[in-house]
C-alpha cells in the first residue's frame, strides 16, 4: 500500500487512493482450459494479465470448456484482503464452439483454502455476490461484494449450475485493501458528522524480489527473446514457457544453474514462493519436466561475486520436485541475519536448464508496526 499526501482530500479522492486493483499478474487456477493445439492454451493467466480486449479474438482471454463441472477461475492474492468489488470483462462468442460464451448470472466467491487442495465447489464458498442478469459478448460488469464478505486470499469466479461450460474472461479485476489496513466503517465515513477521520495502516508484506536487479549463470534464447533472470521477478505468474514470462538457464546437467537477485538492502527473509512451469505438450514427459526443479536451493549472501554451490548460507532446500504448474511456499531458516542478495540454484543432480516462472521473497511481519493518518473530509 502506498500512502500519498493530499491537502484536505474529499471522500471520493480518499476511496480512489485506497481501492486498488490487487490481482494483475497473480497466480491463477482454473477448472479447465481450451486447448486448440498442443502448444497453446486459453489459460486462466489471461484473465489477470492486464490486457483488456486487445482484439476481437480469444488470444488474450481465458476460456474454460465443458466436462469439468463446476466451471471456475480462481485468483490467489497471496495475502488476506478485504474485497469491495470485482470488474469482469467478458469475452466474445467464439464461432468455433457450439455454445455461446456463458457468464450469465455468474458467481463471485472467496475462500482461504488452497485451490490446489480444495477445488471450488458451489455452495461451499463464502459469497461475494451473484450477478442478477445475463452477460452480453464483450460486456464489462462491476459486481459489488456484500458487506458480510469475509477477508480472503482466494477470489473465485464461477458459472451457475445450468451453464454451458464455456466461460471466456478477458480480464477479471479484484478491488480491495489488505486486511487490517482500514480500521473504520466506510458507511459511517460517508456521513460528514464523523470527523476527524482516522485510518490505521498496518504493515503489509511486500515481495522483496519484484522487479529487482537480477542475473543468472546463463540463459536460454527462444523465438520471443532471451529468457533471462528478469522474467523470474517480473510480477507475472504465467506458467507457460511459450508466453515468455519464465526465466531459464542454458546450463546442462551438473552445471551451476543459478539465479541471483539484488534486494538493494539487507532483509530477514521469512519465506519464498516458487511458481513452476506448466506443461503445454502431450503429457508423456510430465515427470521429466517436474524433475528440472528437483531439490532446488534458496541461499542468501552479502557478497557480489558469482555464487558457488554450498559456499553461501542456506535459506532452505525444497524436498523433491515441484508439481508442474504450481506455486509452492517454503519457510526460510529463521536464525539467519539480514542479507542483501538472494540465490536460487538447481540441485547438482537435477536435469539442467533450471526454470522459474516467478520467484517471490517475503520478510516477517512485525504486528506492532502500524501507521496512523488523519484526514478531514470536506
UniProtKB/TrEMBL annotation:
Signal peptide: 1-33
Keyword Signal: yes
InterPro entries according to UniProt: BG_Antigen-Binding_Lectin, Galactose-bd-like_sf
Alphabetical UniProt keywords: Signal
Protein name: Fucolectin tachylectin-4 pentraxin-1 domain-containing protein
Origin species: Helobdella robusta
Gene, per the UniProt record: 20204313
